[in-house]
């Protein structure tokens, strides 16, 4: 867990030493120049410790030395974070001094007091030498490497999120269960019936429900199929919105009252035979309220639910059916483990016995088997390792959660914080892959590797966690790339347990008392807050919580939201997009280290955002129909991604920006200089309302392009050869332009909808579409 903290500190030390054009660092500032000898010694000591400490294999067979190494890592992390706080407070103070701003608190430092940290690093270096390294195996495998070495050696190349293991669809021991439930769902009973699948967490209830939901016969039998997930924090409104969205209702459902949502659902299902899957339901009340919203019109419709609770499952009687999902047998567990590790190949003879021991000690829980397979499949084939893991499992007596913990201990250091971070999100929360990657980058979890972008490296990290069976793919796009992901409840529980031990984040699922929150932040030195509840920020304005680097809120409001910048002056991540407050945080310009900002704003675009020099990602939600960005936005040199739920009206851009993606953008000033404004843009959604020429072939990195025309003006467009995905709507292009599009060498997806082309005849030739995987024609 020390890995990300150390890498962040190393990066900042390099910037201070070399003055790498950091907007907050004046290379000639005497305070910085005088401290550079100290900064260099600090960098050298830290680098020496990292090289030794992170090359030691954590051997559970040597618990005494293992404990020493882990304690050293913890102390190193604490000292690195203290040094990082000191540096960032100094840089903030420097920025305020140069800009004439006077912050309300004296927490900001005007000196770099790092001698104490340097002394501590030297002490740890001596302790490390004293550890009996002869008894600790130095890890020469690929399991623990520096990030650049790790990524350079990965097998993922052009499109890491498109990689899919052949074992993804392997299911063992469910065939009989599928047959039983399929028969119950299709039996000749006209009234609305409920089928319950009940069993402990990790047993495969959702997997079984998914298999049935996608069953070809059931797809044919039911007119409408819908899926919703309830979880422990049940809200009827959210459930109705999920179901309506699942059956294709496209309106802005968030604005509807509950009665309107019930009316829409009832009307949509009336007279149709429907199958409604309700996954992970925890209360009888939720089931009863749902049934009241559904039509009971004798169409042989069915509700299929999954639950851990017998009382919920049994509530469907007398007219329902309860299916108790059994654990896997020892043989089924072994078959599943083999399939996941060897992908259908034979298991070598000498690995069979330890493999069977591992499978047996998973106690018939498929999730444990799959996660352990993820550990084994991603390690070198080493009989000692298999026997070590089999031995380790036998030493645990706390159930399946501790079995899952083995997968965490076998993660390489650079993946651990990425993994634990997932535990901060609400239960059953679907994470949009793109935004998760932006968050990881902002948090400092992702480091550059060679010529690869941070985003590509982060995709590789995500794919590693998916292939280790720690992350579930929730949604893929039409060509198989991962669009959304989530974690199983038990894996999330593991994340929260380990995150608490490592002080990775503070998770608030119930409103804390003011003094409790203050104690947790100030005395436990927490770095991040994830909250599903309204919390009061007022208590931190006089004594800011300088350790807090991230605040992610999944509640609709935060009390005293305007006090956030003064209370958490070193924030890197601020996600308030769920908060529908009529107020906006005062003094946002104080957050000069902020990298990720997601907000909802009710009025004009807040110009203070344009002073956030470190900002990388900007996500905007608004009640306006258009987001008008000011001229000063082009001064944000680190800005990589802009996303908005409305059309973005860009000003005239007079100098190059480092944007990689931008959503739904409109150019009032024309786009003749687009290639000069956005030279490295990769993803662009462009509204072409003027009758102009669009020379997009000058964008050498553009891979994803969506063009929306006016519907009546004919556009002239030139496309770059780098395009992989192209969507055209209302562009009124002549069909002759298709001869150019079909020759694009990298094009994989082509979507054409209403008035993309004018005319009724497309004269296709034989030499076309070298890489095309999907052609979608719509209206």
TrEMBL record:
Species whose genome carries this gene: Centaurea solstitialis (yellow star-thistle)
Family annotation (InterPro entries): Apaf_helical, Disease_R_plants, LRR_dom_sf, LRR_R13L4/SHOC2-like, NB-ARC, P-loop_NTPase, WH-like_DNA-bd_sf, WHD_DRP
One example GO MF annotation: ATP binding
Keywords, comma-separated and alphabetical: ATP-binding, Coiled coil, Cytoplasm, Hypersensitive response, Leucine-rich repeat, Nucleotide-binding, Plant defense, Repeat
Family: Belongs to the disease resistance NB-LRR family.
UniProt protein name: NB-ARC domain-containing protein
Stretches assigned to the NB-ARC domain: 176-345
Taxonomic classification: Eukaryota, Viridiplantae, Streptophyta, Embryophyta, Tracheophyta
Function: Confers resistance to late blight (Phytophthora infestans) races carrying the avirulence gene Avr1. Resistance proteins guard the plant against pathogens that contain an appropriate avirulence protein via an indirect interaction with this avirulence protein. That triggers a defense system including the hypersensitive response, which restricts the pathogen growth.
GO biological process, one term: plant-type hypersensitive response
Every Disease resistance protein winged helix domain range: 425-494
Location relative to the cell: Cytoplasm
Sections of the chain in a coiled coil: 66-93
Superkingdom of this protein's organism: Eukaryota
Sequence ranges assigned to domain Disease resistance R13L4/SHOC-2-like LRR in this UniProt record: 548-753
